Amino acid sequence: MFGFTSIERFFIEIGDFTYFTKRFFQEIFTKPFEYKELLRQCYNIGNKSLFLVSVTAFIIGLVITLQTRPTLQEFGAESWMPSMVSISIIREIGPVIIALTFAGRIASGIGAELGSMRVTEQIDAMEVSGTNPFKYLVVTRVVAATLMLPILVIIGDAIALYGSYIIENLKGDVSLTLYFTKAINALSYTDIIPATIKTFFFGFAIGLVGCYKGFNCDKGTVGVGMAANSAVVFASMLLFILDFIAVFITDIFFEI
Amino acid sequence: MTTNSNTKIKQEITSQKQPIIKLENLKKAFGDNVVLNGFNLELFEGENLVIMGKSGSGKSVMIKCLIGLTEVDSGNIEIMGKNLRSLNQNELNELRTEVGFLFQGSALYDSMTVRENLEFPLRRHKQKFGIVNDTTPLVEEALNSVGLLSAINLMPAELSGGMKRRIALARTLILKPKIILYDEPTSGLDPITSKEIIELMRNIQSQYNTSSLIITHDVDCARVVSERMILLIDGVNYAEGTFNELSNSKDEKIKAFFKH
User: Fold this and answer.
1) Of A75, A162, B132, B136, which sees the most CB atoms within 10 A?
2) Does B255 lie at the interface with A, CB-CB under 8 angstroms?
3) Does A40 fall in a domain?
4) pLDDT digits (tens, 9 = 90+) for B163-200
5) B109 vs A122: CB contact, 8 Å cut-off?
6) What ipTM does this complex have?
7) Domain membership of residue A131 as a residue range
8) How many other CB atoms sit within 10 Å of the CB of residue A148?
9) Domains, in order of start, for chain B
């Protein structure tokens, strides 16, 4: 940008991002709808992240249990393990860690893909052919990310609990039924619903930031790398801010 | 600087045909960098007009302003009698179906096959061609006209530079535009492939009866395809004329373009 200070650039970036978000909400409700592309993006974003999310969640389950067990054992409270793990995973660790993994894969992927389309004039070519590239590329990816992340988090949470059960079973000889009965009994709707709702916002933020960085990419091939990199950084930062807001609001309404 | 004989040529064309594209006093700057500073242009029906200029002289910016990809600071853009700046998005999209654009780097969609690349522009314009579902005849016709029907199921990554340019041209042709804008059609290609592309451009013009605006700094390309040329220097029309008139000019700035 021409001769702006870093503070001015920061506010210009915020302004551009706000305008981009506004355009998203304008385009999402106007015809034509790109259903086919939306389904393709749901597959790309959801299915292709499943393996990474599953492995991450499984390891989280193992590690939390391994590290917490000695302390609980010290107080003779090993039986609380399923309750403790399920509450911490469902409420906070599952959504945040899976969203961060998702941001690393999806925000950077979208940023690089759209960025390279921008610098190779593919986005211009779409526009010239009479297709709205914002609707085709941005709206579909943001909606797909918004819808897919909650599903991935639900699957990831279940896998993390299974990982935790494996450690419990090896160390304490707990059956699968007993473990999951205890884990689920410890949860209430105020644990599950706010945690699930916030994942929609996480998914939306990750998709939007990735698209924003990619769609507005410049400076040639160097810009593509910068778009991918800054998409992950910006999305991760935004996740923590959104998480704080979500926890704060949940606390007001449900007194967690 | 406009030569007298060029005025004559222009008058001859004007007396027979209407301008299909008209740019008046086009101005565009990026910060302090003034790229276009009152550029004017008229393209007539069936004409091949070449714009030459040094790299970074604003040729690509001008052509992108012309199709509405870049917004101009001031000036008037008229395509087929419609003022581009007063059109809404739907009207602009409709007008864009009449104007094909061949991008410098071909701009094929990496994630799609050649067939899908060609089908893409048809998605929103099936009614124009009375297509219900099957776009195959149109795709095959366009690929035949560039001699690459055999590449229909290939991915762009599997194509050579020349093939990519041909496929991009086929994609441009699929909407049967009245005007084709070429942005450096031979850049980055070897001399033999460049000649093939130039030949193809001439064939397409006679086959589809299109008007062409060609941005280039390739003198050979300009010599073969141009009926009229404009030299873009310092954001304005520095000189206009036929290839022979300009290449024989005594002006140092003009001569610099034709030195090998």
Assistant:
1) A162
2) no
3) no
4) 999 999 999 988 889 999 999 888 888 888 888 888 88
5) yes
6) 0.85
7) 49-254
8) 27
9) 4-249 (3.40.50.300)
